[in-house]
C-alpha cells in the first residue's frame, strides 16, 4: 500500500492526460518545447511536487496521533485506521476533478502512511522470534518494494490509456488498502501490546499461539518485567529524549535522514520523470522504471535471506561502498555528457540505467529495510511507541523535503545533485562504521547491555555490572530453552 503510492506518483506525473488536466504549464514545457532552461527543468513545478510530497507531510503529522493509538489501543487498531484512511484517500484521488480534491486525497493517503508505518514494524518485531526478527521485519520493506514494482507495471500499462489512464492507476491503490483492512481484522494483537495494556492472560495465550508451544515462561516473564517498567513511564516522549536513551534515538534519527539523503526516493518518486530528463521516450522511461523496481524487489529478497546471518552492520557498510560507486558513476556521465539540450548517447544511457540498478540493489538489501528494522528492535518497551513515532516522523519529514525539492534542485543544480547525494553516502557510511553496533540475535529486552559496552555510547548508558551479568545469564538461559523447544519440535 505504501510502496504503491510511492511508485505510482512518478508515473502519473509523467502522463499527458494527468498533466493536461492539473498542470498544463508542465505539459506545455514537456510536449511543446516551451522550456528555455532545457532538460533538467522540464518538470520544475511546485504544485506538481506538492502532489507527491503532500502525502508525506500529512503522514508526518499523523504519526504523533498514531503513537498514542498504538500505545492505548494496540497495533491492530492502528492498522485498521490506516486502511480506512487509505481507502478514502484512494477514492478521492481517482475521482479528482480539481487540484484541491487531488491533494486532499493524497493527504488522506499520508494519514494512512503515518498510521501504518507506526504500527506495522512494531507488530512484526514484537511477533517475531528473536532469531528470525530481522528477516520477518524486512518483509515490511519487501512489501513496500513489491508495491513500487506493481505501481511501475500499472504505470506502464495505463500510460497507453489516454486521457484517463491516470485515474485507473491511482484507483488501483484500493486493492492493497482493502487487503490491509481485511488482514487487520483477522490478525491478533501482539503479546507485548496486550500485556502493556493489562490483558495478561490474553497476552500469554497469543504468545503461546505464535511460538507454537506452551513453554514460553522465560519470554513471558521478560515481557511482564518490561511492561512494569513501561507502566512507570507516564510521558514516553519526555522519557525517550533522556540521556540513557540517547544511543537508540540518535541512531534511529540518523538512519532515517541518511536513508533519504542517499537519493533513493528521488529515484523512486520520479523515476519516469528522471529517465525522460535523460532523453528516454515516455514508454521507455516507464519501462526503465519497471527494471529498477524489479531490481528493488529481488534485492530486498536477498536481505530477507541474509540479514540474520550476515548481520545489520556489515550490510550497511558494504552497501555504502556499492551505492557510492554507482552514484559517482551517474554524476560523472551526466556531468560530461548530458547538456541542457539533446539526449545522452545510447551507450551512456544504458550505463546510467545499470548504475541506478546497482544503486537500488545496494539500498534495497541494506539501508531500506535496516532503516526500519534497527530502530524497531532497539528501543525498550517503555519508549518503543514514542521512539517509533519519532523514527517515522523523521523519515516522513525528509521524504517530504526530497519529494518537494528534488525537481527544483535538479533544475538549479543539474548533475551536481548526484554529487550531493554521493557526499551524503560517504557521511552515513562513516557513521555506521563508528557508531552503529551489531544487533543481530540479541533479544529486544536485552539491548541495554549493548550500549553499555560500546566505545562511544557507554558514556550515555551507565554501566551496571550486575544488570549486565543478569542479562547475559538470562539470555543464555532463554537461548538454551528456545533451542531445546525448537529441537523438540524437530526444527533445526
Automatic annotation (TrEMBL):
Keyword Transmembrane included in the entry's annotation: yes
Compartmental location: Membrane
Single Gene Ontology MF annotation: symporter activity
TM annotation in the entry: 48-69, 81-101, 107-124, 136-154, 166-188, 249-273, 285-307, 319-338, 350-374, 386-409, 415-436
One protein family per Pfam: Sugar_tr
Ranges where the Major facilitator superfamily (MFS) profile domain occurs: 1-440
Keywords: Membrane, Sugar transport, Symport, Transmembrane, Transmembrane helix, Transport
Membrane protein topology class: Multi-pass membrane protein
rRNA processing as UniProt keyword: no
SUPFAM superfamilies in UniProt: MFS general substrate transporter
PROSITE patterns linked to this entry: MFS (PS50850), SUGAR_TRANSPORT_1 (PS00216), SUGAR_TRANSPORT_2 (PS00217)
GO CC annotation: membrane
UniProt family annotation: Belongs to the major facilitator superfamily. Sugar transporter (TC 2.A.1.1) family.
This protein's name: Major facilitator superfamily (MFS) profile domain-containing protein
